[in-house]
Design brief:
Helix content is 6%, strand content 41%. With 347 residues, the protein is mainly beta. It folds into three domains: 82 residues, no CATH class; 114 residues, no CATH class; 119 residues, Jelly Rolls. The strands form seven sheets. Strands 16-17-24-19-22 form a five-stranded antiparallel β-sheet, with no helix packed on it. A four-stranded mixed β-sheet has the order 6-7-10-11, with no helix packed on it. Strands 13-12-14-15 form a four-stranded antiparallel β-sheet, with no helix packed on it. The protein is elongated, with a radius of gyration of 32 Å. The two termini are 54 Å apart. The model has no long low-confidence stretch (mean pLDDT 88).
């Protein structure tokens, strides 16, 4: 076969017997053929390197190709790739995520979630880029099936009340990308899907997905949840109390909270301390013994004294944060609401 392209050349010199039908055989070439052979070689090399694609082939399997496409470079511009002096695997940065925003579906907000286009690094030891080129709608009241408008629940027939973790999933054999939801952080993926990344989490209450909006890592509830209106009907005590927030379970997030403290009698200064369960439990205090407080009231007259503020606190995987009062009686109470959470989604 006439060798009309550099890719047809052999690494074994003796096998290169022609170049575009110009014989290179021993004792056959005449001076004009020598000139023509070199001219043809130069033309083929020029054509090979003139392309906007520079191609590398595997040393043992020539069907494995790597193309470098430089067509996007501005005319007359040279771009330089500098390689560090270390062994390095080309892979997306661990934790990378862009887009893939979740939202309630407008037609069936009770059961369906829309997923915007985007990309994320998989959670493999060596990440690969999972890219969702077209937006999807997944139904949480149906078992998972590939494609938009189809089921999205990986664990069975439909999502129960509780937390559903959203994963972008990919088949390494075909490159097909989809999204599935599971109560588990280590879900059983559909057949042949072997790459994944959690991209967010949602909450279902009383058979309906809670309304929310997402902006990057921030998830705001559509309606602020009055998680606790009055602690134990007053006199909650001065020991630490763990309270669950309206945020996803199974992961640690920063709960976005509104907290109120109330004292209806002349108790003097009352201090409330709000901490994460990941922090050491300490006594709420203000004054000579130390200052550790989030809110304080100072009721000397017996009137109704109140204090309130907004806080971000890291939860445990059971959705809890820690409350502690400096003192307590039947006229002291606190309340809090949840208006959203911050979820870094594996960054």
């Amino acid at each position: 076969m006439a060798k009309t392209d550099v890719n047809q050349w052999s690494e074994t010199a003796a096998d290169n017997l022609d170049i575009n039908d110009i014989s290179l055989a021993e004792n056959v070439m005449k001076p004009p053929a020598v000139n023509n052979a070199f001219r043809e070689m130069m033309a083929q090399l020029k054509a090979y390197f003139k392309s906007s694609l520079f191609r590398l082939r595997d040393g043992t399997d020539e069907t494995k190709l790597l193309d470098f496409d430089i067509s996007g470079i501005t005319t007359g511009t040279t771009r330089t790739i500098t390689v560090p002096d270390i062994d390095y695997t080309l892979a997306p940065p661990r934790g990378h995520i862009y887009g893939l925003t979740l939202s309630n579906n407008s037609t069936d907000a009770t059961n369906d979630i829309d997923i915007a286009i985007g990309e994320a690094a998989s959670d493999d030891a060596v990440p690969i880029l999972i890219k969702l080129a077209s937006g999807l709608t997944k139904r949480l009241d149906a078992a998972w099936a590939v494609g938009t408008g189809n089921g999205g629940w990986l664990d069975g027939a439909s999502m129960p009340n509780g937390t559903g973790h959203a994963f972008t999933i990919r088949r390494s054999d075909t490159g097909v990308v989809d999204v599935g939801f599971s109560a588990s952080l280590t879900p059983t993926l559909p057949t042949n899907y072997d790459q994944k990344r959690r991209i967010g989490s949602i909450i279902r209450v009383s058979g309906a997905i809670l309304a929310f909006s997402q902006n990057d890592d921030e998830f705001l509830l559509g309606t602020v949840d009055p998680t606790l209106t009055e602690a134990a009907g007053g006199n909650p005590g001065s020991s630490a109390i763990l309270r669950a927030c309206q945020v996803p379970s199974g992961i640690k997030v920063e709960a976005l909270l509104g907290v109120g403290l109330r004292d209806q009698s002349a108790d003097g200064a009352v201090v409330l301390l709000l901490t994460s369960p990941d922090q050491t439990d300490v006594v709420a205090a203000i004054g000579a013994s130390g200052t550790r407080f989030s809110l304080t009231t100072d009721n000397e007259s017996g009137n109704d004294a109140r204090a309130a503020g907004e806080f971000r606190k890291r939860t445990d995987t059971s959705r809890q944060v820690r409350f502690r009062l400096s003192g307590s009686d039947g006229d002291i109470s606190y309340s809090f609401c949840t208006y959203g959470w911050i979820d870094t989604r594996g960054k």
